[in-house]
């Protein structure tokens, strides 16, 4: 059997303001099969540090889990032709009420490559200036912002039954073994 796969056709099943769903017919050798794929323009997240070394997080309602979750500022690359860094800068101001003069790319990762093409780009932001928060939508408007030392954040997250993967990856990129330290 061949190692070659190719998409023969794509049918749009759903298109929302955040994501789409496509059914892709894929050829592998003599056979074809269908895969449903969630399409997404990409996202960004920001691990922000204030001058005291505290990490900025938000406590935000998330409908899929029907509860408030701890997250770092993040958002969808939903502005046409906006570079990931510009999206990150916008999201930091909207969600945390901060701007930063120092930015560092922490990395990019595929969110869940078995069913979505979403790629998340994570930045570290330092040398912050606090500005007016500009939340968008009911979840951001009702979200609360918090600043925790790394050890306090670690303890708080360990007490949660499950935590946000994007924040986990950002913390491991910045600290190495963030959750392994006791």
Key features of this structure:
about 180 residues, Nucleoside Triphosphate Pyrophosphohydrolase, alpha+beta, three-stranded antiparallel β-sheet, 4 helices, 10 strands, 2 domains
Fold and architecture overview:
- This protein is α+β, with helices and mostly antiparallel strands and 182 residues long.
- It has two domains: 35 residues, no CATH class; 133 residues, Nucleoside Triphosphate Pyrophosphohydrolase, CATH 3.90.79.10.
- Helices cover 21% and strands 45% of the residues.
- It has four helices and ten strands.
- The strands form three sheets. The chain has a four-stranded mixed beta sheet, with helices on both faces. The chain has a three-stranded antiparallel beta sheet with strand order 1-2-3, with no helix packed on it.
- The protein starts with a strand and ends in a 7-residue tail after the last helix.
- The model has no long low-confidence stretch (mean pLDDT 94).
Briefly summarize what is shown:
The protein has 182 residues and is of the alpha+beta class.
Distance between the termini: 49 Å
Instruction: Report the radius of gyration as a whole number of Å.
Output: 19 Å
| Helicity, as a percent range | 10-25%
Q: CATH superfamily of the largest domain, called what?
A: Nucleoside Triphosphate Pyrophosphohydrolase
Number of helical segments? 4
Give the SSE layout.
Layout lengths: L4 E11 L4 E9 L2 E9 L3 E6 L6 E8 L4 E5 L2 E3 L7 H13 L1 E13 L8 E12 L6 H6 L1 E5 L1 H9 L6 H11 L7
Parallel strand pairs: 4-9
Antiparallel strand pairs: 1-2, 2-3, 4-7, 5-6, 5-10, 8-9
């Amino acid at each position: 059997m061949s190692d070659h796969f190719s998409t023969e056709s794509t049918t749009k099943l759903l298109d929302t303001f955040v994501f789409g769903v496509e059914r892709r017919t894929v050829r592998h050798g003599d056979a074809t099969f269908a895969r449903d794929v969630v399409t997404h323009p990409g996202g960004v997240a920001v691990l922000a540090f204030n001058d005291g070394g505290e990490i900025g997080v938000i406590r935000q309602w998330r409908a899929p889990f029907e509860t408030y979750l701890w997250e770092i500022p993040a958002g969808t690359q939903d502005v046409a032709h906006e570079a990931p860094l510009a999206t990150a800068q916008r999201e930091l101001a909207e969600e945390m009420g901060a701007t930063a003069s120092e930015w560092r790319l922490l990395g990019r990762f595929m969110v869940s490559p078995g069913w979505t093409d979403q790629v998340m780009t994570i930045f570290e932001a330092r040398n912050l200036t606090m500005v007016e928060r500009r939340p968008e939508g009911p979840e951001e408007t009702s979200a609360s912002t918090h600043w925790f030392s790394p050890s306090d954040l670690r303890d708080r997250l360990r007490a949660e039954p499950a935590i946000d993967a994007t924040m986990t990856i950002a913390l491991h990129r910045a600290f190495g073994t963030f959750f392994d330290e006791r």
